[in-house]
Amino acid sequence: MGLHGVQMEGDDDHGEPQKFNKYACGCCIVASMISIIFGYDTGVMSGAMIFIKEELKIGDVKVEVLAGILNICALVGSLMAGRTSDYIGRRYTITLSSVIFLVGAVLMGWAPNYAVLLAGRCTAGIGVGFALMIAPVYSAEIASSKSRGFLTSLPELCISIGILLGYVSNYFFGKLTLKLGWRLMLGIAAIPSFVLAFGILKMPESPRWLVWQGRLGEAKKILQQVCNSEEEAEKRFRDIKKAAGYDENCEADVVEPLKSSNGGQGVWKELLLRPRPAVRWILIAAIGIHFFEHAVGVEAVVLYGPRIFKKAGIKGKDKLLLATIGIGVTKTMFILVATFLLDKVGRRKLLLISTSGVIVALTTLGFSLTMVENVEHQILWALILSIVATYTFLAFFSIGIAPITWVYSSEIFPLKLRAQGMAIGVAVNRLMNATISITFLSLSEAITIGGAFFMFAGISVMAWWFFFFLLPETKGKSLEEMETLFTRGRGGGRIKNNGGVEIQQRNDL
Fold first, then answer.
1. Distance (Å, rounded) from C-alpha 342 to C-alpha 297?
2. What mean pLDDT is predicted for residues 415-428?
3. What is the annotated signal peptide range for this record (predicted)?
């Protein structure tokens, strides 16, 4: 057992007790810290908008733009981050993300008017795009196959922690003067951004990126730190070299990088123009899971929670903000549970259970809000049902769809295509997030707020079928095996109905 290994439940492929590498975990935790800042920026805006609207005298359209512009800019940032991380490495890309966040937070905290506030939000959005792409990719490339689900879900857990901190910040800073309160809510995020920008430099680079660049000696040393034994490190090293296109028996410390590893050249052709059948399936799976994560309406609840609770019948700013803190607590608690289930239950089963619960919760929320809207007096049972349905939706969403979106998409792409493939997924993710953020208020006016959630329930049914037919189980597979996995069990372009079970059985052998 390596110096960093501690025993966990389960067995490895040779019947040995499964180990958990504390050094690899530490690297992933530090990399995931950038996601706390993003989560905070998302959560704090839900309450800050109440005060911003009051001081700056802006209407709902400008509020929607302020809420959604971060994700439009994040779409651009994620596409930039894919090529950037291939060129300068995963670690320096996280540092760059922190610096961009820092600038955005300072602008928002200073903001004397709406234009500067919007500029700060846009800048922070670029940082969001970088962070969302790079943190799961780095974690996936550091982790072993046995703990990859846990470690790669840490960024999503950190987002939830950040959202919760944002809600708490709303509650306490909301007691300050109108002019100072919301500026402190937004500007205080500059402090952790500054600390992380330097702290991240103490981390090792991704060994897979180093191999891709021909820096084999450095990659091997890092693998010896993040693995529990020399044998495990050597096996992962050989697999990575082979996947990168080098001779797996090569012992040189430095070799000439392959032409394809020069900043990600040729990747777009292999991803979009002439993809292999397995790569096409992988890309469809990644785009689909990112599309449905936000198409089911989670952003409507996270960002506009106070408005939903107000519509349900809760009055007063303090009560609204306290009820919204409950959203953050629920989301964080259930994502924490999910991190421990991903490597035991598996991605596919947890995803289908999660989506089933989301369908029921959204249908219930649509019904209860419709009842509230169609009566003149307050109905206590409908108010209670609305709150319970909201928290139930977040619980089911957070135990499956939320973390698995990032775990799954970061682990299925081949090494050469991983960063830019993930960037495409994140771009779709941010586009859907922005769409929901910008249109929810207008949508709820057009078809009622209850009707909006009935629509999200219908989309969730489509999501369930997509996950069932197109997403095979990846639990226990190494990153180098993923392309083979997406070549199996095909029938007319779909996974056979029992394909997920068959693959799971092979994983358990």
1. 23
2. 87
3. none
pLDDT in tens, 333-380: 999 999 889 888 989 999 999 999 999 999 999 998 888 877 776 677
Q: Tokens 């960002």, residue? A: 303
Instruction: Look up the pTM and report it.
Output: 0.77
Of 432, 439, 484, which is closest to residue 459 (Cα–Cα)? 432
Please state, in angstroms and rounded to a whole number, the distance separating the CA atoms of residues 398 and 328. Answer: 11
Q: Identify the three-state secondary structure at position 12.
A: coil
C-alpha distances out from residue 252 to 10, 242, 245, 258, 259, Å: 35, 14, 15, 15, 18
d(CA 403, CA 411): 13
Tokens of 328: 């953050």
What b/e readout covers 69-106, taking b as 16+ CB neighbours within 10 angstroms? bbbbbbbebbbbbbbbbbeebbbbbbbbbbebbbbbbb
Read off the amino acid at residue 122. C
Which amino acid is present at 63? V
The DSSP annotation for 201-234 comes to GGSPPPHHHHHHTT-HHHHHHHHHHHSSSHHHHH
Nearest to residue 458, comparing CAs of 235, 295, 286?
Answer: 295
pLDDT higher than threshold 90 for residue 100? yes
Looking at the predicted structure, is the pLDDT value of residue 222 above 50? Answer: yes
| Backbone dihedral angles phi then psi of residue 494, each to the nearest 5 degrees | -125, 160
3-class secondary structure, 292: helix
pLDDT band at 502 (very low <50, low <70, confident <90, very high): very low
* Residue 17 φ then ψ, to 5°: -60, 135
Q: What is the overall mean pLDDT for the chain?
A: 82
Average pLDDT over residues 390-411: 92
Position 258 scores a pLDDT of 65
Q: How far apart are CA 366 and CA 450, in angstroms?
A: 4
* Residues 6 or more apart whose Cβ sits within 8 Å of residue 490: 277, 281, 496
Per-residue pLDDT band for 493 (boundaries 50, 70, 90) equals very low
Gap between the Cα atoms of 447 and 359, Å rounded:
19
Other beta carbons within 10 Å of 191: 12
Q: Give the CA distances from residue 488 to residues 414, 458, 475, 479, 496, in Å, rounded to whole numbers and listed in that order.
A: 16, 30, 15, 16, 10
